[in-house]
Design brief:
37% of the residues lie in helices and 30% in strands. A four-stranded antiparallel β-sheet has the order 2-3-1-4. The chain is α+β, with helices and mostly antiparallel strands. The protein is flat, with a radius of gyration of 14 Å. It has one domain: 2-Layer Sandwich (Alpha-Beta Plaits).
């Protein structure tokens, strides 16, 4: 039986209100646990090696599979704090399957 590939949510987030953004990050990890999600990257120093991309705060969250990643993003718990992130930042999120 084939193993399902891990799935990742990758975000490039420009935090516009750091104090308010802390209200979001204080609760995010708790929303991940029921879906097997875990942070792989959560901010941190970065170095541009190639290209013109100038990312802001990079976030990578790993999930066991696509269903878990979508389940988290669509969950009531995450939807309750999502407006805080949207109020305190601008950015993009993508869902991508691993190998």
């Amino acid at each position: 039986m084939a193993t399902m590939p891990s799935c990742y949510i990758v975000g490039d987030v420009e935090v516009t209100n750091p104090d308010r953004y802390k209200d979001y990050t204080a609760h995010t990890e708790d929303t991940l646990q029921p879906y097997g999600g875990r942070f792989i990257v959560r901010g941190g120093d970065k170095e541009i090696l190639e290209g013109d991309w100038q990312p802001h705060r990079l976030v990578v969250i790993e999930f066991p599979d696509r269903e878990s990643a979508r389940g988290w993003y669509d969950s009531e718990a995450y939807r309750a704090i999502l407006p805080i992130r949207q109020e305190a930042s601008n950015g993009s999120l993508v869902l991508v399957e691993g190998y």
